[in-house]
Amino acid sequence: MERSRQDEVRDRMRDIAGGDPGTAERALMSRLIRSFLAKTPGAVDRLGELLRGGDPAELRDHAHTMKGSAANIGAGILAGILAEVENAAREGFVPDPDVTLGRVAAEQALAFEVLERFAAELESS
User: Fold this and answer.
1) How many domains are there within the chain?
2) What pLDDT digit, counting tens, does each position of 105-115 carry?
3) pTM, entire model
4) Among the four residues 21, 69, 89, 103, which has the most C-beta atoms within 10 Å?
């Protein structure tokens, strides 16, 4: 059975803060999520620039950084897409920009919905 995006995020936050997070841990998790939500759109814009004309080494490095950020927050599917980009660039291949950005945008929207809900839940408790 496939794990849900929500389960992935909750499991990752539990790894970070433990099973019964206190006020400080909830605040930390909220800050991590809010930071990811704020920085990712700019990183996706840069990814688009690199897909459309950057060199594969820069694309590889940028996709690697984005992959790590997504994985760190529990956005595993997004991290997987970025891993595909990283691996292709490592082989000297630049994936189709439109297809790749479409996949990233679709998954980003789904992940952001889960992350926004979780951050609001943390902030209200």
Assistant:
1) 1
2) 999 999 999 99
3) 0.91
4) 89
